[in-house]
Amino acid sequence: MTSATTRRQSSNTPPRSASALASIAVPRGLLGLQGLSRERLIRLLSRTAELHRLGDSVPQSLRSKAVATLFFEDSTRTKTSFTIAARRLGADVVDLSAGSSSVNKGESLIDTARNVEAMGVHAMIVRGKQSGSAALIQSAVRVPIINAGDGRHEHPTQGLLDAYTIAVAHQRHDFNLSGLTVVIVGDIANSRVARSNIAALHTLGASTICVGPPGMAPASLASLGTTVSSDFDKVLPIANAVLMLRIQFERHGEGPAPTPSPGASPMSIASIREYRCGFALTAERARHLRRGAVVLHPGPINRGIELDADVADGPRSMILQQVAHGVLVRMAVLEESLQGQ
Ligand code: CP
Q1: Residue 81 Cα, ligand 1 centroid: separation in angstroms?
Q2: pLDDT greater than 80 at residue 291
Q3: Sheet strand arrangement including 207-211
């Protein structure tokens, strides 16, 4: 037995023989959308649509299961919607927040996760400040890990719910998004949401254009198969969907996040005023959107910076539908992750 295998064996389970260990399936979980097959993506989105149709009649398919939320970074939408999703399917939810965990006393993420696993949970939902933190934890435990956002790397359930929202808005019930152009605007270099979206949208057949100032939308993003532009006004009229992103002030350099306010001068842009001039979706700019184009934002929104209130609350906005779809997508992901557990 390898040391890695020994490490992955939970301390409250009886020892297993090498042959028994060889037959244990790798936990399912969901660490990212990059490299995920089209078949699996469509299966998850199709299940999301079924759960959508079922409404209040969703099955209690996770009764007697327990899932833990381990959030080492703030969240409103993701954590709450995972909790609601798990409870709607009948699971128990245990919440471990960074602010009240022994991580504050120096315990490592891996030791924390192993201790939670030892209590008998069936899956963990992990948000971490560092890119790769969910994968790191998955390498150390046997239960499936669902990545709820890791640094600048990925936010797979956000990518799924955004793809689902775009498909619903454009009546692509088969999730074939060929012919659609999604324009992603803002601080893409620091955005895990952008990476997950680009991966899912390309796999489903859509084209993407990433727009921002060069420090936020560098030419190197083209390696992801996206087109890079710094001219929002030029690409806006061809968009079928516009995904606006927040400036990730907290990821600009070291130290505490600066407060976003007009006149602030974070890394990569000269001023908020200049940023708005080139890259905000203002009410005036929104008039140039084509018929049927929709506006998305993963939240939290900095109203008056990247997005005007009139647009955020206007008829093209899918922002609250995204949030509602988040519960459905997360139910589908939890079901898949816990199948056969
Ligand atoms: N979209 C998103 O991840 O929001 P939260 O940070 O509030 O979870």
Answers
A1: 10
A2: yes
A3: 227-229, 207-211, 181-185, 241-244, 294-296
